[in-house]
Amino acid sequence: MKRARSLGPTIQSKPDFCPTCDGRRIIKRGLRKNCFRRLQIYSCKDCGGYFVSLVGLKGVKYPPRVIARTLCLYNLGHTQEEAARRIATEHRITVPRRTISHWISGYRPITTFHRLRNVSVRAFGGRMLKERTLEHQQTYEYKVHLSKLALTAGAVPPDVAAKVKNYLLSVFGDFPDDFFRDDPTANPDRQARSVPDRQARSVPDANLSTNPVQSAEPVAMRSSKSHFEILPLVRTEKQNLANDLAALGLLLAGKNRERHPAVQDFMLANDSCTVACEVPVYLTAQEIAYYKSRGFFLTLPESSKPITGHIDVVQVRNGLIHLLDYKPNARQIDPVNQLVVYALAFASRTRLPLKVFKCAWFDEKDYFEFFPLHAVKAKSAQASA
Q1: Of 100-114, 126-140, 189-203, minimum mean pLDDT range
Q2: Element counts in the chain: helices (H) and strands (E)
Q3: What is the predicted pLDDT for the residue at 383?
Q4: CA-based, 20 to 30 A from 219: which of 147, 149, 185, 325?
Q5: What are the residue ranges of helices labelled H in the chain?
Q6: Helix crossing, 259-270 with 64-75: angle to 10°?
Q7: Rounded CA gap, 302 and 285, in Å?
């Protein structure tokens, strides 16, 4: 069946199928140069057609990175004229206002923040983001979208929204940063983030071993044998707007190590549900003991140090708090353990029941989600969790 052309991400990468006949036998057929860049041309052996790898707006001659950056500027409160001036300064490319308007309209199905932009600009102007640099062994750029955070009461119950808001804003105040600095073995995602291309983040970072000899070996931190036992659960595969947002966000990444912040920044600026990124969380031994006393199935080893981590993306939608982790090559990994620890930690920090959380990992192609409660609580006892 012939696939319709998407108005979505304009990524110049080898396509999986021919946009004309859906054929899979794709080969390269030279380059085409326009006034700003070179485009790879592909040929389909099934229908004999030629096409470029841009699957977005027709006739796009500007670098995709410029398009993604322009969308971010506009949805962060800048006018189209201001966005054009910033693009001219940053990229030395003059983009007509009419072209910017065309991009905004064409990508509106993906950049859903447009529904909230007018009220957000009136309330916050161009100061929608609040940021803090966290020196937690590695450097993390913690960011909160103030406008979307103020509107969370419409997506979840007001008491849930208030607790989430209070915790996210508390990170800017008297936050226990020492938990993330004192003991490298207590921060299971520190070593993963130190890998230059961040490929190590595709492996679950919730290794909870407290053996200093074992944790000194990066291989042990990345081994699948470090997983703790969980209950059987259903991992649901689906297509989500996060896939398209990630694809557009990746356009902002010049290097592999920039992929995570690029995806996070694009989602925070353009998605209507993403309220924060790089959210620091920790889970103490007392909290683990409390969960066990309430009948949770937790096989985490005892440790005097809190278990820490940083959640890539926090979304508020459909009555639930969604904890998302961007994982390159998401289909090839299973970071359920890492996400379960994140959910337990975030629930402890916000004093919310685990049943209001949903976890997912994704890349630009795949999206997998599950309920963390199902991993640690038998179905017969989930009503009280």
Answers
A1: 189-203
A2: 14, 11
A3: 58
A4: 325
A5: 64-75, 80-91, 97-106, 114-124, 146-150, 158-170, 190-193, 212-215, 218-222, 241-249, 259-270, 285-293, 336-350, 373-376
A6: 40
A7: 7
Question: Where is mean pLDDT largest: 103-112, 227-236, 260-269, 290-299?
Answer: 260-269
Cα dihedral value 48, 53, 59, 61, nearest 10: -130
For the packed helices 336-350 and 158-170, what is the interaxial angle rounded to 10 degrees?
100
Name the DSSP letter for residue 274. Answer: E
Name the phi and psi angles at 157, rounded to 5: -55, 145
Cα-atom radius of gyration of the chain, to the nearest Å?
22
Half-sphere exposure of 123 (CA within 13 A, CB side): 14
Q: Are 323 and 343 in contact (CB under 8 A)?
A: yes
Condensed to tens digits (0 to 9), the pLDDT of residues 90-116 reads 999 999 999 999 999 989 999 999 999
Q: What angle do CA 114, 311, 165 make, to 5 degrees?
A: 60
Contact 320, 164 (CB under 8 A): no
- pLDDT the model gives residue 154: 84
The residues that bridge with 28 in the sheet, in sequence order, are: 42
* Cα–Cα distance measured from residue 27 to residue 15, given in angstroms and rounded to the nearest whole number: 10
pTM of the model: 0.78
Instruction: Tell me the pairing of strands 367-370 and 357-362.
Output: antiparallel
Q: What angle in degrees, to the nearest 10, is found between the helix axes of 285-293 and 336-350?
A: 90
